[in-house]
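Weekend entry, working from home. Most of the wet-lab plans are on hold until the incubator is repaired, so I used the time to fold the two sequences that have been sitting in the queue since the last round of cloning. Logging both here for the record. First:
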Amino acid sequence: MNIKQWLIASIALTGIALPVFAQNRTAPMNFAGRYLVSVSDADMVASAYIDGNLGTREGEDVISLIPVGKHVSQLEAFEAPASNSVAGPPVVVAVTPDGRYAMVVETWTQRPEGAAENQTFADLEHGNRILVFDLQDPTSPSLVQESAIAERPTAVSINFDGSLVAVSFHPSGAGTETPLALIPFSNGQLGEPVYPEVITIPQGDELIHAEWHPTENVLALVNETSAEVSFARLTGNLTLEPWGNTVQIEKAPYMGRFTPDGRHLIVNNLYWGADVEGRWTEAPKGSINSIR
């Protein structure tokens, strides 16, 4: 593959079995699954995060499936075009609980063919699409739907029964007015998006990630601007009401994931910001918070 950046963003598993490390801490993890799902962004070199220069465009953005169960030397990726972006947390792809469908949101559009090599981040346009892929045959992922949504989506999450999709939006796109979309999903098709009021996210703050609880219609809402996590429960007519208290975390949270039993939320904090920019020779240490 001629792809400059590779992002493992989601794993569709049938079960996990972790080894005992008491006697051998170098033992590999032993897990069982059907395939790995990833998205690749071909629009930028890694150094673009530092200097903004995108470099040479190579290939196109894709979604890739890697069926597992074989020896690592025999693993192979099977691709389909899927415009996406790695300029944000690795939550632009999500898989339905049954493993049948994957959804990819387009944060930034792809550069056009023949674009100049001296392009920068400023030359990229905001995306506004969500794509649905059928994964029934992991060796041939196929696009089944492409829908326009609000501008600059940053994260996608699918609820516990696969019937509802949550998408968050960056404030430089639609996020100031519509930080979140809820989209019904049935039989491989998305319905019309609804943009509910999110009381716990002040206007202009960045809702960087909205993550569904694994067993209930409850969302964890990660506010990057104020470094806090709030929760909201789904009510009738696709509306949300605050649930529980707001939890202060640490600087520049990026994404949150529930533990499989739903009892804890794990959030990583990057400690990025204006006060640390330009200090790349000694990157700040990040942190991880656990919320009960």
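Second, folded right after the first finished:
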Amino acid sequence: MSKLVALSISIALLGGIWAYLALGPLAGMVLVWAGFIAWGCYFHTGGDNAALQKTIAGMIYGAVLAGIALFLVGLNPIGLPGATGPAVYIAVTVFFLVIVAGFNLLSVVPANVYGYAATAGYALESKNMAVTAMNMTNPVLIVALSIVIGAVFGMLSGKLSGMLSK
């Protein structure tokens, strides 16, 4: 079997399992789409053990920074008016999103951005701003768990693809 067919089958099979888990037993705790973002990030980062580490670390780092930005926007600690506050808090956190690229685990800037964007997008769209909650209502925790499981499913699909193509 060709590598492309093997990869297609492995991703289809495991993608269906992931969707079932995210929409069934893990519903409310994970986001199917955030897991697929991590899955894709794993492959574009190299599809190996280092990619798994960098995907998880970078995307969770981005999710945490988005949580900080959302917290600051809600709190507006320096009292900036109108759209100025969110713009400043986002600018500051995005600076830290990129400046860390000198650290190996956070060197894949797109991974950092994916985690930030997924968290901010989910929180804003769902109007779930519980970024300080220490339970599964926290959008940072929901996205982080989705990232870990999605990246692991990416790794598993690569391994299954390798077995199928032999």
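Plan for Monday: verify the second prediction. Residues 3-164 form one domain.
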